[in-house]
UniProtKB/TrEMBL annotation:
ATP binds at residues 142-146, 205, 249, 300-304, 329-334. This is arginine kinase. Its EC number is 2.7.3.3. It comes from the Eukaryota.
Length: 380
């Protein structure tokens, strides 16, 4: 069954939900999907950790408030065997109801963050502690720092109604339009946006892409583009995405390598939102997000960087980056290739360390890559 048909089946079931255990049509879809995954050559964390005994233990469970099933969590990974992770949380309770599969995957993504670990309280520190990564502007094209937040008492994409999307968009954009000074700007709903404008914003890496098949299969694109949009300041250095993968993505961008300035601008924007909105947090997991890869402090700090010598062999670059807890993506972000030798390199870890420690780890790692590039280029 293809992803869209599967998602529609689940949606149909969802709209009539009032059950205390997964109905038989969901169990049939789960058994068939699990069988196909088991027979596939998938390298996803879902396949790695969803043993038959865990599958049998979880397949009939539903979350208390939204009746989310195991299928709601794993249908993206069942339809996309090339998933890296393969699982999402349809609502905040899913992390507890389906902890037997979420916990080992969380521990795998976030380098040993186990059941006994607790994410630390927020500590942002000062952006000024992080000097420009590349003051001579030889390698770093641009720097971006983003984090995610979910609004308390709302579920995640698969359980949101069309009215929920509208209400979230209204609530969040209302607060954003009160921002002043450097953070003041405009909210642009995706609904009705001129296609040329939309394409330009995506090509300039300001706006999220459309048609992510992993999100579609996870039932995260229903009622699209209702409730989705982007807030941008005048200088296009501060953006907020509304209802893409998460309810909120707070984004700060800089040309060049001034990580501290980008980080400082993101903190101010995030704190301004926190003043008016209540976020969904868990005592152990930190800030809750749709995908387990973004839990904790939810920060991804990245550079668009050219490394002509050590970047020649992507596999070697990924190996070196991995030693510094860094992740390598293509020029257009996740699931893309590098164009014109520009890589997106960012921190990997977001759980078990504070915001300040995450930015510090990224700053140290990128500095080490630049030093390695300098050493290689001086050998030539
Ligand atoms: P995220 O989960 O952080 O949003 P994506 O990989 O989907 O990650 O990236 C979203 C967008 O941000 C993409 O268009 C990507 O090219 C852009 N981006 C990421 N890092 C940078 C950067 N340092 N400079 C400019 N654009 C960036
Ligand atoms: N594409 C999905 C999610 C991976 C993590 N990235 C997110 N959440 N944007 C996968 O399982 O590969």
């Amino acid at each position: 069954m293809n992803a869209i048909r599967l998602a529609r089946t689940v949606t149909k079931c969802y709209s009539m939900r009032s059950y205390s255990m997964a109905p038989c049509e969901i169990l049939e879809l789960l058994e068939a999907g699990y069988q196909r995954l088991a027979e596939s050559d998938s390298q996803s964390l879902l396949k790695k950790h969803l043993t038959k005994s865990i599958f049998d233990k979880l397949k009939t469970k539903v979350t208390p408030s939204y009746c989310s099933t195991l299928l709601d969590c794993i249908q993206s990974g069942l339809c996309n065997h090339d998933s890296a992770v393969g699982i999402y949380a349809p609502d905040p309770e899913a992390y507890k109801t389906f902890a037997d599969i979420f916990d080992p995957i969380i521990s795998d993504i976030h380098k040993g963050f186990g059941k006994a670990n607790k994410h630390p309280a927020s500590c942002y520190g000062y952006g000024a502690d992080f000097p420009n990564l590349d003051p001579e502007q030889k390698y770093v094209v641009s720097t971006r720092v983003r984090c995610a937040r979910s609004i308390q008492d709302f579920p995640f994409n698969p359980c949101l109604s069309e009215e929920d999307y509208r209400n979230l968009e209204c609530m969040i954009s209302k607060v954003l339009l009160t921002f002043c000074h450097e953070h003041s700007g405009k909210y642009l709903p995706l609904k009705g946006m001129d296609k040329e404008v939309q394409k330009k914003l995506i090509d300039n890496h300001y706006l999220f892409k459309e048609g992510d098949r992993f999100l579609q299969a996870a039932n995260a694109s229903r009622f699209w583009p209702t409730g989705r949009g982007i807030f941008m300041n005048r200088d296009r250095t501060f953006m907020v995405w509304v209802n893409e993968e998460d309810h909120i993505r707070v984004i700060s961008m800089e040309r060049g390598g001034d990580l501290g300035r980008a980080y400082e601008r993101m903190i101010i924007g995030l704190e301004s939102l926190a003043f008016s909105l209540k976020f969904s947090c868990d005592k152990r997991l930190g800030n809750l997000t749709f995908c387990p890869s973004n839990l904790g402090n939810t920060i991804r700090a990245s550079v668009h960087i050219r490394l002509p010598h050590i970047g020649k062999d992507k596999a070697k670059l990924e190996e070196l980056a991995g030693k510094h807890n860094l992740q390598v993506r293509g020029t257009s972000g996740e699931h893309s290739e590098a164009k014109d030798g520009v890589y997106d390199i960012s921190n990997k870890r977001r759980m078990g360390l504070t915001e300040y420690q995450t930015i510090g780890e990224m700053h140290k790692g990128i500095s080490a890559l630049i030093e390695a590039e300098c050493r290689e280029s001086s050998k030539k």
